[in-house]
């Protein structure tokens, strides 16, 4: 792959990450409002707080796309993919939301790791930005793994 091809692949990867973050914002917002019940309160608060962080990731990615000479796409180019993060029919199904968050975080981690490797030796600014976002996503994953453990323990008792 030529340097030019790699630079275009980096822009494409940034755009894909941008869409992933935007979709996560939409789903975190919906689930932070949709869930009901005592067990849902902590999850709702966490999701509502995480909306801002995910939106900041999207803004950072979009800015980098522009800095690299790419175009930030509008909503007509959006194709949703986070099926597991949709608000559940049962608004008290906290477990489904937590598992959906974990799946979305895992997808983001995989994506950022791939971008980090793609940037190596060619775009250290984007690489550093992706490393920072990766750390955030890993932190979210750790928190939601804890929520899932607690939820499953309470469900058994």
Explained architecture:
The protein has 157 residues and is mainly α. It contains 4 helices and no strands. The longest helix is centred in the last third of the chain and has 33 residues. It starts with a helix and ends with a helix.
Write the layout of secondary structure elements.
Blueprint: H1 3-34, H2 40-67, H3 94-119, H4 124-156
Helix pairs in contact: 1-2, 1-3, 2-4, 3-4
Main beta sheet: none
Q: What is the averaged pLDDT score?
A: 96
- SSE ordering: HHHH
DSSP summary: helix tally: 4
Low-pLDDT residue spans? none
Whole-number total of structural domains: 1
- Percentage of residues in strands: under 5%
The Rg value, from CA coordinates, equals 17 Å
What is the percent of helical residues?
Answer: over 70%
CATH class term = Mainly Alpha
- CATH homologous superfamily annotation: Ferritin, core subunit, four-helix bundle
Shape: elongated
Total beta strand runs:
0
Structural class, by secondary structure, is mainly alpha
Alpha-carbon distance between the two ends? 55 Å
Give the structure's gist in a few sentences.
The protein is an all-alpha fold and 157 residues long. The chain has 4 helices and no strands.
Which labels suit this protein?
157 residues, mainly alpha, Ferritin
């Amino acid at each position: 792959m030529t340097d030019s091809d790699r630079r275009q692949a980096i822009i494409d990867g940034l755009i894909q990450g941008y869409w992933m973050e935007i979709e996560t914002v939409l789903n975190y917002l919906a689930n932070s409002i949709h869930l009901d019940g005592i067990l849902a309160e902590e999850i709702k608060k966490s999701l509502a707080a995480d909306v801002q962080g995910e939106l900041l990731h999207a803004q950072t990615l979009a800015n980098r796309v522009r800095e690299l000479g790419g175009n930030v796409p509008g909503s007509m180019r959006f194709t949703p993919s986070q099926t597991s993060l949709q608000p559940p029919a049962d608004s008290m199904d906290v477990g489904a939301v937590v598992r959906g968050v974990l799946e979305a975080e895992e997808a983001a981690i995989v994506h950022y790791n791939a971008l980090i490797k793609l940037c190596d030796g060619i775009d250290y600014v984007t690489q550093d930005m992706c490393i920072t976002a990766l750390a955030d996503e890993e932190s979210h994953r750790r928190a939601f793994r804890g929520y899932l453990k607690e939820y499953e323990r309470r469900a058994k008792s």
